[in-house]
Amino acid sequence: MKLTRRARTWSVATAAIAVVVLTSVYCAQKPTSTVMSSGAGKVYVAPGTYDDFYAFMSGGFSGQVAVYGLPSGRLLKVVPVFSQNPENAYGYSEETKPMLMTSYGFIPWDDSHHTKLSQTNGIADGRWLFINGNNTPRIARLDLATFETDEIIEIPNAGGNHASPFITMNTEYAVASTRFSVPIPQADVAIADYAQKFKGTISFVKIADDGKMSIAFQILVPGYNYDLAHSGKGPSHGWAFFTTYNSEQANTLLEVNASKNDKDFIAAVNWKKAEEYVAQGKAKDWPTKYFHNYMDPATQTAKSEVISTVKVLDPADCPGMIYYIPTPKSPHGVDIDPTGEYIVAGGKLAAVIPVHSFSKMVKAIEDQAFDGESNGIPVLKYDAVVAGEVQNPGLGPLHTEFDGNGFAYTSAFISSEIVKWKLGTWEVVDRIPVFYSIGHLMIPGGDTMKPWGKYVIALNKVTKDRYLPTGPELTQSAQLIDITGNKMEMLLDFPTIGEPHYAQAIPADIVMKNSKQFYELSANQHPFAVKSEAETGVERKGNEVHVRMSTIRTHFAPDNIEGVKMGDIVYFHVTNLEQDWDVPHGFGILGLQNSELLIMPGQTRTITWKPSREGVFPFYCTDFCSALHQEMSGYVRVSGKGSNVQLSQNSRR
Ligand code: RUQ
Ligand code: CUA
Fold first, then answer.
1. 143 close to 211: Cβ distance less than 8 angstroms
2. Which of 143, 149, 249, 271 is nearest to 198 (CA)?
3. What's the 630 CA to ligand 2 centre distance in angstroms?
4. pLDDT tens digits, residue range 293-340?
5. Does 439 contact ligand 1 (Cβ within 6 A)?
């Protein structure tokens, strides 16, 4: 049946009332409409009111982070991280280009998978958000006062930074490991020599009190695939856990050859021990090359430093630092419950969900309950470590989140469902189908010591018939499910940007009180900043023309520029003089081969333009800033190479 526009308007506008009416009047006779209407009421956020949670979802192959409000599913912002973004010149402006520098050169794209909020005492604290770059191994840190990318560090000696960036409970480290083993250090070797020559690394990225990242050390590990991770908490604080697959060390036809072993491993790393070994000088300084890029807060310009050595620990020199826990069939996710005791593996090809016990693991290590070793790493006895197995958990269990009330929720990719089960008894208590093919799932705080519960979000890989068709590619999809009752209840479908992998959510009041409204103009130390229109001007240095320009409602200064010549590169350094919330100005000029600029109040941003022909070129503000926005424009005159038109400007001083 088709809804008429009127019917749709009615249903939205009166949804809140409908909940009350339908539940009270029709409840007894019409259970299905009650479910639907109460679902609508639970996600309805009235105009002018705020959502309860911020949700931060990875953009997958878009390389960005998307910020949503929950429960409405409203998209609030896309924060560019690993990919250029012409909407606001991220990765195009001179100030932000260094952020995308790597040892492979300037990289305009990456594939981002896992968002992680910073934590204090095991609770998400809303200061920063971390996310991994998977393809060209990197970790980014976003500042949640500005919702901008503040820092990106490259991870050397890695191939596919997938098990990343999993934060320790006081944000001491972000842990990261290589998904693909590679020759380390990189070398020209035969791929058939995989088993002899390829290795993996596990990296510990130190996070300073101000958020600054640095690579503390790396651990060289056997050449398996390291898939996902989580850091311990509470009693297991000081340990980090990584799933592995391909312990077969296959290098071709992995779907068959890496699925032969009955069990692969969870690598349990005692990072406090590793720190001791580093302090004792056990780490070797390996020559390497990686970039560390960060925003200088004074100039709001990204800087790159190139680092040429990294500390590497070899487990052979460091007894007691790493153990393998046998885990059925190519495990995918590894998730630690809020008490820090249970280590839940997502055995994606397994018929059960194995749950390991941290305290049993410690005891097994003490008792030396080993089952031999794998490439020099001691393997613990499965029975000595396992706490229980969840039977009948759905097909293809991948990831688990927790509600803080003793229940766990596991995504099952193949059977497209979320399965709820009880910690300790391991019994499945509820299941709900999702549409379709769920990957990650997320409960606000659901991987911390303090889950806020309320909802679980299914982050689905396939959408098929859930929305209006949009050609061959359909939007990716998230689904919001109420978990406050005994039965899970589907509330809402909403589209996502790129492919949602992992996500995080946090109560809105923790983040919103710190939100920055504008940059202080008086604190702007950008070398080309202007503090008033009197400081604007044009200057020639050889074939470079530097324009110090200002914007304020509703004009540019200068707004007429002459004397630019063919062969020049023009640098427009634009300062937004506004000191008010939500008044960015934009800048674009005819034939700009770059992106527009979007300049926040108090900020200076620079875009370069190389005129390709003689003439007079209009520029204008691209952001509808006021009633006289259409008047906010100007001209640049471009003359021939040998012309004697003097460089000049006409500003309104
Ligand atoms: S994972 S494919 Cu996070 Cu389940 Cu990346
Ligand atoms: Cu400034 Cu439109």
1. yes
2. 249
3. 8
4. 999 999 999 999 999 999 999 999 999 999 999 999 899 999 999 999
5. yes
